[in-house]
Amino acid sequence: MDRKQHIAIFTTASLPWMTGTAVNPLFRAAYLTKSGEFKVTLVIPWLSMKDQELVYPDKIMFKSPSDQETYIRQWLEERTGFVCGFNIKFYPGKFSRDKRSILVVGDITNTIPDEEADVVILEEPEHLTWYHHGKRWKTKFHLVIGIVHTNYLEYVKREKNGRLQAFLLKYINNWVVDIYSHKVIRLSAATQDLPRSIICNVHGVNPKFIEIGKRKKEQQKNGNQAFTKGAYYIGKMVWSKGYKELLKLLHDHQRELAGLEVDLYGNGEDSGQVQEAAKKLETDVRVYPGCDHADPVFHDYKVFLNPSTTDVLCTTTAEALAMGKIVVCADHPSNDFFKQFRNCRTYQDSNGFVKETLKALSEEPAQLTEAQMHELSWEAATERLLQAAGLDQVVLKRRRSPTTTSPRNIMSMSMNLRKNLDDASAYLHYVASGIEASRRVFGAIPGSLQPDEEQCKELGWSFPAGA
Q1: Are 292 and 184 in contact (CB under 8 A)?
Q2: What's the pLDDT at 43?
Q3: What is the Cα–Cα distance from 425 to 71, expressed in whole angstroms?
Q4: Longest Cα pair distance anywhere in the chain, in angstroms?
Q5: End-to-end CA distance of the chain
Q6: What CA–CA distances, in Å, run from 463 to 127, 133, 134, 453, 456?
Q7: For the whole model, what pTM was predicted?
Q8: Is 281 left (phi over 0), alpha (psi -120 to 50) or beta?
Q9: Contact 135/110 with Cβ under 8 angstroms?
Q10: CA dihedral 152, 157, 160, 165 (to 10 degrees)
Q11: In 3D, which of 40, 36, 241 has the Cα closest to residue 27?
């Protein structure tokens, strides 16, 4: 019997940190496994206790990887409604305070045995390979697929000397992605163009949001008022996540938007400043702590306002559409996927924002069709991923000729590896990433070339002698 092809998914964050690179790869692993075509392993960062305290909310802490795995599986199965049969493995990570990100420690390719190194999905391929020092991903795996989640250039531009930093980062990202990935999927055109990349939304929404949308649709069909509240926004409460743009729009158009009530939900470093700015407005803007977007408090809102332009593909926008709401968002590449839905209203300038907001509040949302609900689902997202990555052809070829078609043969038919140039470039990166001084120059965490004794002990790894 031919063994199932193995897909390893490496990502840069893990629950309970409620960030996109923790949540979306988790659902991806679940639905790839549910398809029945693949054996799947999700590989996530393990943080020591001192870093967990900095990253995880509500003082949630884990003494061991197995404790965290139990938490993750319970969280996921409560939302999908089915037992998720994929494997979970951990790699050592450290939290960078200045980057507000978890960075890789050591050679994490070793977490997957060579005999299972068929296909790997790198969620944020640039992030995972900036400081990679070890076996080359393209050598270890037959097919390396990168999925770009984050518009790093946009964030860097907002920092001191931002334009220079963004210029350098653009070329570093191109370099490492070219070295380590065969194919790259960009969730939207809001990301930088990268070698061998295509644009495709391979994300779906938590099934709970679609269920909420179905209930709202039923209320509308029965002639009941499905939405009794006005406008809201939810997101991490930092200025760069759309709050700056939203409060400016509300400030500049207080007269036109007289009587408008807006509720903001979120936690973050800029919460205090956002609250103070909201108090100065004549518009009634209320600020609340963040909570799960599926919480009943959000069900009855009719309009979701999202002026953010730093997102690559805004998860909360997709969730709001799935719940049957009208979304008012910027005419921006990050929102291109959502324009196919009647309830998505885009604007090009501040006057357009006012017009679309007032119009949305005066109308009832269009009822979602079954096809539209499917388009927002993880089932559809998984279909798009398999097609974009060429894995649907792998499945078809395995079915037709299970004994003669190997992943390596497929790769040789579909890709030109440009071997000599790639090897030279990869060797240069390997040398640079192995020197502590050069690593620090480019922002690596000191001492992150190899995991320390504490991390090895927590992960059950042997600590290398003489390290």
Answers
A1: no
A2: 98
A3: 41
A4: 73
A5: 44
A6: 25, 17, 17, 6, 6
A7: 0.88
A8: beta
A9: yes
A10: 70
A11: 40
Contact by Cβ (8 Å): 341, 372: yes
Residues 6+ apart with CB under 8 A from 202: 28, 147, 185, 187, 381, 382, 384, 385, 388
Q: For the segment 10-42, what is each residue's pLDDT rounded down to a tens digit?
A: 999 999 998 889 999 999 999 999 988 899 999
Distance from C-alpha of 64 to C-alpha of 305, rounded to nearest angstrom: 40
Tens of pLDDT along 85-134?
A: 999 999 999 998 888 889 999 999 999 999 999 999 999 999 999 999 99
* Cβ–Cβ < 8 Å for 313, 188: yes
- For residues 21 and 123, the answer to whether their CB atoms sit within 8 Å is yes
- Structure tokens given for 124: 């944020």
Question: What is the rounded distance in angstroms from the CA atom of residue 134 to the CA atom of residue 116?
Answer: 18
Q: What is the pLDDT of residues 348-370, one digit of tens each?
A: 999 999 999 999 999 999 999 99
